[in-house]
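A further point concerns the way the authors explain their paired sequence and structure data. Showing the layout once, in full, would remove most of the difficulty. For illustration, here is how one protein appears when written out as sequence plus structure tokens:
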Amino acid sequence: MVSKNRFRSSPGWLFRFTDSFLILSGIFLGGYIRFWGVTGFSYTGDYLVLRMMLIVVVVQVNFHYFDLYDSKIFRDMEKMGILLVGSLGITFIFMTVIYYLIPSLILGRGIFSISLFLILIFTFSWRVSYSYVRKTWVSKEKILIIGTGDLAKKIKSEILENGLEGFEIVGFIDEDRDKIGQRI
């Protein structure tokens, strides 16, 4: 029986919600950094929530299409960083087209560029932290596989290759005593 540990499968809604929060935080902080020292600066204007949520949705969709919600991606931080940069680059291109077609959706002078850089920093840091917690603090369910044949090898490869870090293979059992100590 498989326990319902959320860290075993792909990240769920709480992970995506945290991403959304970090994206919004990057947008707000980007505005304050852009107008640093200007008194009275605040986010005001028509359709402000729509403009900010549009960025959140576009970034989230790109994260999805770049497989940044796949649990396998948390194994390779370098690949995850490259995919984050790529997805935010596509976000930049897509939002540039939207801003060209509908100029009233622009947040302000330079806010979007600064925000994308902050979103990259925030989401990468969040993913590294999540990966660390996932690897170190979550107890793994130990598995003892009965048999050493093809099915046992397939089970082993499924666990090791498909991002199921919540499981730890402790060994294999076989009737043949000559197979003791051999690698499967």
Summary: The chain has two domains: 13-136, 141-179. Confidence is low (pLDDT under 50) at residues 1-8. The radius of gyration is 22 Å. Residues 88 and 116 are 7 Å apart (CA to CA).
